[in-house]
Amino acid sequence: MKKVFLIALVLTVALFSLVSGCASRQAADESGKADSAALGYGYTRDAGSPMEEQEAAYDGEDGYGNHGQRYAVKTGEVAVNVEDIRESEQKIRRFVEEKRGFIAGSNFYTDSRGDYQNSYLTVRVPQEHFDVTMLFLEEDLGRLTSSHSQDTDVTLQYVDMEARINNLARQEERYAEILQKADTVEEILQIERELVRIRGDIESLTAQFTHLKDRVSYSTIHISIRQTVTATPGVTAVGFEGAWERAVAALTESLNTLINGAANFFVFSFRAMPYAALVLIGLFGLYKVLKKFDRRSSQKTQ
């Protein structure tokens, strides 16, 4: 009898402990949710709020959420040799404009004699036209020397930033509602300080998000163009263009170099005269001393 009573007592205590533990855990979970959901001044996060959307943003089939949509920043670099650098620039401009893109920057360099000409262009094209633009630059301009493209995934950054902006906007609305119900000056000032902080965060994040969306929407390609007469295979007479002018310029440069050399030698001769005089005087004195020493040696020998 005592043994049965002890077993029943042990089972009762164990059952009571199990029920108490489950109830405590449920209460702690509810308390933690309430604490983490509090967004200031007594209002809580509603179901389906931007914060919950942000937490669920990565639950899509591919881990990115947002119905599996992927965001990426595409960039490219192409270097080509061409026979006519100006014509190539115009071809690039026409092609980019047809694809609803634009030239973001351009630089042109050449040496004093025009032997080397280089052009550097930065173009922006809609992302859906990135691949066809790279193909055009690689195959339709001249002789390709290098090509590089990069696809940087920014889905996590894009979704996170968008959710944070939405959440801050919701917070701003709630604080604005609470401001209408504030009774004391201290409450009004405190709420207004929070509103200023939230609006500043929204402006900063919106600027960053706008820049990120622009980089995603429009891909960037850096193009280096160099003009050479052998950009395409086959015999060409392009190298003779302007040959007479270049020959005359080379002859003129050689004559100028010769004349400048003669003039510099003439100037140097006058500049060296005082030093030459000192050297001649020194040599003459040394000659006299050696001659006198030679006479004395001859007399002693006799």
Elements, N to C (H/E):
HHEHEEHEHHEH
CATH topology name of the domain at 67-154 and 218-227, in short, is Alpha-Beta Plaits
Largest sheet: spatial strand order: 2-3-5-1-4
- Which ranges are low-confidence, i.e. pLDDT below 50, for 5 or more consecutive residues? 1-65
Report, as a whole number of angstroms, the end-to-end distance: 160 Å
Biggest sheet record: 5 strands, mixed
Q: Which CATH class of the domain at 67-154 and 218-227 applies here?
A: Alpha Beta
Roughly how many Å is the radius of gyration? 43 Å
Calculate the mean pLDDT score and round it: 76
Query: Total strand count, please?
Result: 5
Care to describe what's here?
By secondary structure, the protein is an alpha+beta fold. It has a domain at 67-154 and 218-227: Alpha-Beta Plaits, CATH 3.30.70. The protein has seven helices and five strands, in the order H-H-E-H-E-E-H-E-H-H-E-H. The chain has helices at 2-37, 50-55, 85-98, 130-139, 155-181, 185-217, 243-301, and strands at residues 72-82, 102-110, 117-126, 143-153, 218-227. Strands 2-3-5-1-4 form a five-stranded mixed sheet. Strand 2 (102-110) and strand 3 form a beta hairpin. Helix 5 runs antiparallel to helix 6 (185-217). The longest helix is centred in the C-terminal third of the chain and has 59 residues, at 243-301. The relative contact order is 0.12. Mean pLDDT is 76; it is low at 1-65.
